Structure formats: structure tokens, C-alpha cells
Amino acid sequence: MYRIYQANISDIDRILKVYDIAREYMHEKNNFQWEDGYPSYDDVYRDITSKNLYKICMVDKIVGVFYFSTEPDDDYSYIEGKWRKAKKYGVIHRVASSREYRDIFKACFMYCRDRIDYLRIDTHADNEKMNTLIKKNGFKKCGIVYVRNNSPRIAYDYVK
Q1: Could you give the CA distance from residue 136 to residue 58 in angstroms, rounded to a whole number?
Q2: What is the C-alpha to C-alpha distance for residues 135 and 62, in angstroms, rounded to an integer?
Q3: Rounded to an integer, what distance in angstroms lies between the CA atom of residue 50 and that of residue 106?
């Protein structure tokens, strides 16, 4: 159904629109974790040039986006709690949907799970939708991590 590709520079405008839609949805749900235009043009550009930003497409249209890397993530170097494994992991960040189609997170998760058997992800406590999707797809809560601006996030991991 969906096709997933590495994003490229020509995708930036559409990706920023998807992030705008996601931010608007979050605000409707009283979740303000993505403030001040985050993720910004610079964030998207950096994610693309590092080859870690992926687009989820339906035919030729970008309907979702996510960051995925198998490099160590500084945000996960300290956790109030405990990761279930101390081994190489994949990290998922900045998952967003245009809200036109369902199961965007599931498509992202399956793509990442097929590439590495241990995943980590985090989200804001107020992001009820993402917390539900994360748990529904087999992730387990591990504790709290702190991201940009020292903001706390619920940290989860998935072991295949």
C-alpha cells in the first residue's frame, strides 16, 4: 500500500506541510511538544542530508514522514529508568502524518523493525495518540529521557 523512500531536498516543502498538519493536530489535542516551528526547515534539511529522513508515499504523494537512524542518539544516553537492552538500536523520531490515510505509524514501525531488531522512541506525555500507537505496536515503557530544551519525554523500546 505505502511506499517508503529516503527523502530528498526536493521534498522539503511537502515535508514541512506534513509537519504543519501534525503540529496543528497536536495543538487541537492540547499537546504543544512541537513549538516554535519545530521541526524547522533547518531540521528537515539536516535530516535529509544525513540520509535519515524518510517519506511515506501513496502513489506520488507524501502522506507521512519520519526520522530513522541506527547511530547512537545523544537524547538516549541518560534515562531515568532503564533500557531493556544495551546493544545497537534504531531510533525513530519526528513521525508525522498528513492525516489523509491511516496506519502511517504502523508503516514507519514495520519499515524500521525490518532493518534492526531493537528500536527506541520517545514522545511527550501529552501526546496521547502517539503514546497509544507506540504501545499498540509492541513498545514497552522504559522511563524518561530529556530532549532539546531539557524537555522530558516518555521513552520506549521495542525488542523483536
Answers
A1: 23
A2: 25
A3: 23
3-state secondary structure of 11: helix
145 strand-pairing partners: 153
103 CB-contact burial (10 Å; exposed 0-12 / middle 13-18 / buried 19+):
middle
Rounded to whole angstroms, the Cα distance separating 110 from 133 reads 13
Helix (H, G, I), strand (E, B) or coil at 83: coil
H helix or E strand, kind and range, residue 23: helix 12-28
pLDDT in tens, the chain (160 residues): 799 999 999 999 999 999 999 999 988 888 888 877 889 999 999 999 999 999 999 988 999 999 999 999 999 999 999 999 999 999 999 999 999 988 999 999 999 999 999 999 999 998 999 999 999 999 999 999 999 778 899 999 999 9
